[in-house]
Design a protein that fits this description.
This protein folds into 2 domains: 5-119, Rossmann fold; 132-309 and 335-361, Dihydrodipicolinate Reductase, domain 2. 32% of the residues lie in helices and 27% in strands. The protein is built from 10 helices and 16 strands. Strands 14-13-12-11-7-10-9-8-16 form a 9-stranded mixed beta sheet. The protein has a 7-stranded mixed beta sheet with strand order 3-2-1-4-5-6-15, with helices on both faces. It is globular. Nicotinamide-adenine-dinucleotide binds at residues 8-14, 35-37, 40, 57, 74-77, 79, 83, 97-98, 168, 171, 187.
Length: 364
């Protein structure tokens, strides 16, 4: 019998983890689920009749833990720390949805607790890592294909993609900082920075300057809706690489803005550059362009990769933790690295507020 998989939260992302469970290489784990909202729980059970439903987290975790068991925390971010601590205390390995927590202090506590108990603690911003384009870009940077890197442009702007409004409008909690911890910074910057760190492998990131904004639109929200999060952020970041090289990063991300939509990921080096589509959606072809000089002429080599399997990315975090527990190779987002990336997002918020620069060490 496979060790169980327990889902805390039975919303949108929980369903992706449940589908990932059906497709695990070693076969599905017995599935358990809980959610404080009975309607969410019964809707989930209708989609996943294989799941054993529990009325409370306490009831689900009261069962004796089985070696190799996994708890996925799939609830709003402000609940991640308390629920993950409870899951670790019950002797289970934990996969927390992104962001790992809503403060660096909470994240550090989780990392320490998992280490103390000898349990795995992973986070889900590994979701968009491992695409062939990003791997190829990282390899070019690592192998000197662009010379010494000195400048990154990482700019991802969408006009109307706010969770809780245009995307997943029923989950209004995304707009309420007390539940979400923040806006597009905690929703998307964690993915951007995870990918950026995978490509540059920096030992530290310094947030030199930053800003956050909430562009206004004519959308009318139901009375009483709390809406106090940002939807457009930007930062000038200096990445310090292992050999001391300093790379200037122009970073911007919006889930709402009035300017042109853009998706740019580019690393410039002194002998070449690489740009690529870092976040392909299902149906899009993935591409990467390597530009370099040959006898004074600029040469562009473009490679394209086939369409992704739909929603392959959503399966990656659970598949990786399952593999780690089975002793198979995998590239998860470990708790310590997720905690350092969360600290960079928080540095962006803090630097936007007080204009003081901050340096964050990036865990391997
Ligand atoms: N929706 C997405 O596309 C997506 C993608 C990646 C990651 N995520 C992350 O997944 C997490 C959940 O997001 P979602 O989109 O599934 O939200 P959702 O609103 O669809 O579902 C959240 C569920 O959590 C439940 N919940 C609230 N408090 C709880 C508690 N204390 N204990 C247990 N359950 C509780 C709610 O009742 C709800 O059913 C967030 O951290 C989010 O950032 C979401």
């Amino acid at each position: 019998m496979r060790p169980p998989l327990c889902l805390i939260g039975a919303g949108v992302i929980a369903r992706h983890h449940a589908t990932a469970n059906r497709n695990l290489p070693g076969g599905p784990r017995p599935l358990h689920v809980t959610d404080p909202v009975p309607a969410s729980l019964s809707a989930f059970a209708a989609d996943h009749p294989e799941a054993t439903v529990h009325a409370t987290v306490e009831a689900m975790l009261a069962r004796p833990a089985v070696a190799g068991e996994i708890v996925v925390i799939a609830s709003p971010p402000a609940t991640h720390h308390g629920l993950a601590m409870a899951a670790l205390a019950s002797g289970r390995n934990v996969l927390v949805e992104k962001p790992i927590a809503v403060s660096a202090g909470q994240a550090a506590e989780l990392v320490a607790e998992a280490a103390r108990r000898g349990l795995q603690l992973h986070e889900c911003s590994s979701r968009y890592l491992g695409y062939r384009t990003t791997l190829a870009a990282a390899e070019l940077v690592r192998n000197g294909g662009i010379g010494r890197p000195y400048r990154v442009r990482w700019i991802q702007l969408s006009n109307r993609g706010r969770p809780g409004i245009e995307y997943q409008p029923r989950s209004r909690w995304f707009l309420d900082r007390s539940a979400s911890g923040g806006g597009v910074g905690l929703d998307w910057a964690v993915y951007d920075l995870a990918a950026l760190c995978a490509v540059l492998a920096p030992r530290a990131l310094t947030v030199v300057a930053a800003w956050t904004r909430c562009p206004a639109t004519g959308v009318v929200l139901p009375p009483g809706t709390v809406f106090d999060v940002e939807h457009h952020i930007g930062a000038e970041i200096t990445a310090e690489l292992a050999d001391g090289t300093l790379v200037s990063v122009a970073y911007e991300r919006a889930s709402c803005c009035h300017g042109a939509e853009r998706s740019e990921a580019e690393v410039a080096g002194d002998t070449g550059s690489v740009s690529w589509q870092w976040l392909p959606w299902p149906g899009e072809r993935m591409w990467i362009e390597h530009r370099f000089d040959v006898r004074g002429a600029l040469v562009t080599e473009r490679r394209e990769f086939a369409t992704l399997a739909e929603l392959e990315s959503h399966h990656r975090p659970l598949t990786a933790l399952d593999a780690v527990l089975a002793g198979r190779p995998a590239e998860p987002m470990g708790g310590a690295r997720a905690a350092s990336i969360l600290a960079v997002v928080q540095a962006i918020y803090a630097t936007a507020a007080d204009r003081c620069q901050r340096t964050i060490a990036i865990a391997p």
